[in-house]
Specification:
The protein is α/β, with parallel strands linked by helices. It has two domains: 149 residues, FAD/NAD(P)-binding domain, CATH 3.50.50.60; 176 residues, FAD/NAD(P)-binding domain. Helices cover 30% and strands 25% of the residues. Strand 20 and strand 21 form a beta hairpin. Helix 1 runs parallel beside helix 9 and helix 4 runs antiparallel to helix 5. The longest helix is centred in the N-terminal third of the chain and has 20 residues. The chain is globular. The protein binds flavin-adenine dinucleotide. The site of flavin-adenine dinucleotide (FAD) has 34 residues, from helix 1, strand 2, helix 2, helix 6 and helix 9.
């Protein structure tokens, strides 16, 4: 018999990364006449928008993670492989996974991004960022260790440093962290310590621009700032961090330079693409932007390779209004679904119009009953925004089990003002270094306004 379509092996789609982009692409290919291999260096999908709740003891890591195998177990055309892809061979159409080469007809790369220190990688040791479960556990360890250490500390200067929390970056993650730490200090932990008054804690949110939450409309940014201040957070805009070292953050505000002593410095600024961007650039000559993101064509493929697609945070898609799409979950999800449809239609000999992102708005939570929601024409704030935020996050959580557990956990925490996942794990922190009275402390208990010492 002559070779016919029936004799040909099914089209092989390899997806690298099981985050929002990769997972939604795999789900959308469930009924397509293709074989899908999804490779991730983790065996679970992580719902990053709720990571800050792990970092602040509200949820446990498993509440926001879903095993990729179980999520995709009903997709009979899909296999999941655990491993870190370190190279690709675009000519031979293979993905290199350790000493294995996985062949593909179509490749989707969705390996995401992580925080960037704007070239100052040495700051990471003192100011961890938030991207993985390990990062969240590390932040949680630092936050709760700070209160414990302050309780034991007799030197007031050092105690102030333990009770000063600095969050760098006033985007949604910074705002959410600042609001959650304020609730911890001023509400949840208030009765739990004997020597310290946790409400003496200073929570500083530093932002380089003239307002927090830059993606939101200015009036919502203002509402968010006001709500944070009411919660007790010291919001400092137009503030540039110029150094972070040995528990000291150096900031520049206008012409003034100050140092803030803090044992808990958290990084919520800057993004850089995953190293797979560089791998793709070296093997295909595709162009990268300054953040290392891959410049993609209007159908999310890369120049010269119509069978390689890059989606999600790793992609720079600038075909809509000349600016790259934001690094948010809905972009990754819609891109994943688009590429899946494109592959299916291509196999049928059809073509698709260019990818078009439909933005449904931005949301950020500030605290209990407090959030801001920007849906373009409709803007919500306060309780209704908070309720909307809760419903959206529950809706987008991947598995039913996660949805149920998170609803129960949130209901319990709301009713009791408690945060049950306050575990300190890992190694002990070193004792403070170099702290003395020459640094700036934020020490006005009633107003929580900065004072210079
Ligand atoms: C703290 C935080 C809060 C956020 N809050 C929000 C929010 O409120 N709303 C919102 O819309 N977005 C939010 N985002 C952004 C959102 O999570 C991302 O835009 C989205 O996850 C991007 O999806 P992705 O598929 O591109 O990458 P990711 O979801 O990051 O997935 C990348 C996957 O690739 C895997 N991987 C990486 N390298 C390799 C490799 N070499 N080999 C194999 N696997 C690899 C990783 O393990 C991971 O599973 C937040 C992000 C963070 C970090």
């Amino acid at each position: 018999m002559e070779n016919s379509c029936l004799d040909q092996p099914p089209h092989q789609v390899v997806i690298v990364g099981g985050g929002f982009g990769g997972l939604y692409a795999a789900k959308a290919l469930a009924k397509a006449p293709v074989n899908v291999t999804l490779i991730d260096k983790r065996n679970f999908h992580l719902f990053q928008p709720l990571l800050y709740q792990v970092a602040t003891g509200n949820l446990s890591p498993a509440d926001i993670s879903s095993p990729l195998r179980s999520v995709l177990s009903k997709n009979k055309n899909t296999q999941v492989l655990l491993g870190s892809v370190n190279n690709i061979d675009p000519q031979g159409q293979k993905v290199i996974l350790g000493d294995e080469a996985i062949p593909y007809d179509t490749l989707i790369v969705a390996t995401g991004a992580k925080h960037s220190y704007f070239g100052k990688d040495e700051w990471e040791e003192f100011a961890p960022g938030l991207k993985t479960v390990e990062d969240a556990i590390e932040m949680r360890r630092r936050i709760f260790t700070a209160f414990e250490a302050a309780e034991k500390e007799t030197d007031p200067v050092k105690r102030r440093a333990w009770l000063t929390f600095v969050i760098v970056g006033g985007g949604p993650t910074g705002v959410e962290l600042a609001g959650a730490i304020a609730e911890l200090a001023y509400q949840t932990l208030k009765e739990d310590f004997r020597k310290i008054d946790t409400s003496e804690a200073r929570i500083l949110l530093l932002e380089g621009m003239d307002r927090i939450l830059p993606p939101f409309s200015p009036d919502l940014s203002q509402t968010a700032e006001k709500s944070l201040k009411e919660l007790g957070v010291i919001v400092q805009t137009k503030t540039l961090v110029t150094n972070i070292e040995n528990d000291i953050v150096t900031i520049k505000q206008g012409d003034g330079v100050r140092e803030i002593a803090s044992k808990t410095i958290l990084w919520a600024a800057g993004v850089k693409a995953s190293p797979m961007g560089k791998v793709l650039a070296e093997s295909t000559n595709v162009e990268l932007d300054r953040a290392g993101r891959v410049i993609v064509e209007s159908d999310l493929s890369i120049k010269g390779y119509s069978n390689i697609f890059v989606i999600g945070d790793l992609a720079n898609f600038s075909h809509q209004d000349g600016k790259p799409l934001p690094g948010v979950a809905p972009v990754a999800k819609q891109e994943g679904e688009y590429v899946a449809t494109l592959i299916e239609q291509k196999l049928k000999g059809n073509i698709l119009p260019a990818f078009n992102y439909i933005s449904r708005g931005s949301l950020a939570i500030i605290g209990r009953n407090l959030a801001v929601v920007d849906l373009g024409l409709i803007k919500l704030r306060g309780f209704f925004a908070w309720l909307f935020w809760l419903l959206v996050h529950i809706y987008f959580l991947i598995e039913f089990k996660n949805k149920l557990i998170v609803i129960i956990q949130w209901a319990w925490n709301y009713a009791t003002h408690n945060r049950g996942a306050r575990l300190i794990t890992g190694e002990e922190l070193p004792t403070p270094t170099k702290l003395d009275d020459s640094h700036t402390y934020y020490d006005s208990p009633n107003s929580r306004q900065p004072v210079k010492v």
